[in-house]
Each structure stands twice: as structure tokens, then as C-alpha cells.
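With this grant's support, we have paired protein sequences with C-alpha cells. One protein thus recorded is set out beneath this paragraph:

_____
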Amino acid sequence: MNQPIGILDSGVGGLTVLKQALVDFPNESMVYIGDNARCPYGVKPAEKISQYTHELVQFLLTFDIKLLVIACNTATAVVFDELQEELDIPVVGVVAPGARQAAQLSENGRIIVAGTEATVASGIYDRHLLERDPMLNVYGVECSELVPLVEDPTTDPIKLRSQMAACLASVSDVDADTVILGCTHFPLIKNEFQHYFGPRVRLIDAGRAAVQDVKSQLQKHHLENVTDPEPYVDFYTTGDPVEFQQVAKRWLGKDIYVQPVATADLTKGR
């Protein structure tokens, strides 16, 4: 099927998912929307997160997408189950795949989940991890302050590391061997996380893990593109397209064209 895959995120973090999807699915078309104007989601009430996510979904549905990827841990935590029931297309989130990979790879059973306030407060990673192994020790740590720093291409690296150290201070001595990057923005600063925790700690990119679930869903529902020889990737943002392009170039390694979308127009289609 030559319909596109729809990918949504609160901002640029979902590009970490899209980047891996481009590698794994070179024949698939994709439409990405980042809600940069209302980012970060992680410090907002659940009702607002649900509202914003539903608006992004309605926008993507105007492109006749065949599969939806919620490339945002916060949105996944709040509305994943609801969207699975509402939509008649497969829905893939980023929490379950990341938790599954972490549970499989941790050797000492101590796992840190670095996420936004909403993701950590929801306890969704704890539930998924403990369902797989009740003996795991899970330490959630809220790092919402890092999200706008990732969004800002002018962020000073020293300021970023200082803020990261402040966020992670409460888990600095738990001796975890595995850290889930429980926000799709965080792989953009993976090197900084690795520097903080040290080389022996394994970092789990929940977004990359989710791409494996996308592959399974495409195959399960026979949705692979085998007819369109020229797949495309379209980018939209509710924020500043130039700022989005700057971050995207740094992460994707190429120039892209980004189209602006007013938040008031999200539910009105193209």
C-alpha cells in the first residue's frame, strides 16, 4: 500500500524515530508533524496533552495514513490506549518497545527512566517493566527541563550538561546498568547522557525500539509499499520552520523543507 506512515511528536524529538524509519523503510512515504508551538507536552495537564495529540492525529488522517506512530513518550502515556480503540489503522507508541528492550538487556535489574514530568508521573514505564519482570528496580527521574534546551539550536553545551546533572542528581547513586531515554528528544543529546552515566551504562532509545514494532505492524497487516517507486517525506510544524530545519539538519544530516501549520488550523486538513 502506497499510503504514508504518519508520525507525530510534541516537537523535534520524533525525528529520532523518523531517522531510523528512513533507514529501515526506504520504500515508505511518511508525513511528520511536530507541535513545536506548544512544546513541551511533559509539563502540561493530561487533558491538554490528549487534546493536542488528537488534533495532530486528525491532521495526519487527512493524508490517508495507513499507520500512526506516536513518537512522543508523554502522548503515548496519556492517549495510546484511547487512540488504539478509536482508530481503524495500527497505532505504534514508544513506551512498550523501549521497556521490553530494557528488561531484556539489563543485567543487574536496575533501570532508570529519564522522561518528562507527565511520563514519569503516569508510571507507564514502571508498569510495562514490572509486567515483564517483577524483580526489576525502576527509578523514574523527571527531566522536562531538558526538552526546550534540545529544541533550541543555540543551547550552550555547558548549560545543557549543568541542567542534566541537576535533573539526574537524585539517581546518581542507584548503580543502574540501563537507562531508558524516555523522551524522544533525548537521543538528540545521547552523548551528553552517556558522558554523565559513563560508558558501562546502556542507553535505550525507546524511539528506535518502536521502529521494530512499526515493521511488525506493516508486515502483519500487509501494509508494505510495493507499488510506489517514489516515496516522499513531508514535514510540518506548528512552530518556526527555520528553527525546525536547523535541528533537523543537525540530526538527519541533510536539508529538509518544513511547512508551517497554525495550531488553529490543525483540524481543518491541508
User: Anything to note?
Assistant: The two ends are 22 Å apart (CA to CA).
